[in-house]
Write a structure and sequence with these properties.
The protein contains ten helices and no strands.
Length: 267
Amino acid sequence: MLSDLTFGQYYETDSFVHRLDPRIKILILIAYVVFIFVARNFYAFLALAVFLVIAVIFSKIPFSNMIKSMKGILFIIVITVILNVFFYKGETQTVLFWIITKEALIFSAYMALRLIILVMGSVLLTFTTTPVALTDGIESLLSPLKVIKFPVHELALVMSIALRFIPILMGEADRIIMSQKARGADFDSGNVISRAKAMIPVLIPLLVSAFRRAEELGDAMDSRCYSSSAVRTKYKKLKLSARDLVATLVSIIIFVSVIFLNGLGGV
């Protein structure tokens, strides 16, 4: 069910990763995503995977929750692998169908690994950072853009609301599906087209619910005289600590090792 999807949800616990400054976590994730595409061989991917596993261990988040986060992109991973296996050109041909090359298989495996660790790294950020802290971190990092009149606060607010709505809408969709099943609807049998048609009775009430919640949120903000142009203070001010320095140094070591491992060659 949709309630099993974990993206955008916060896992409340006390851990080293949870206590990190949100700005540091955002910057580490951005660098991590960049180096995912910089990695060119097995050793570099192994270093990134080990870094992710260590981060999950220090976050005290069950690995089962991380695995659940892959459900939403499993179809995308399969399609990506299939397309690259058959359409990526290589020099060494294998005996499999006489059209699939060794390079295509390796490239497809790397693409699957990139998608998996990219999604898990992003999910780890939302697991360990509340939407409010994430918003404050984004707003702080983008604050220099205020010089050119960029709407930093509005952008951070939109992202915060979007993150908050993800688990809410997933729960709403799950309740609608359960109520439709109680009325005899079948979402599990038939081909892909029939299943897509069966989802239409779910999408319409879900859209209605989303617009209703958005209208209620807008009315609540208006009733509290919310104004994006007002000068605001922070209840919790972001401050860097020793743990942020440690996390930054470890991340730099891992990312530098990826560059070094790329030079070793290999598959």
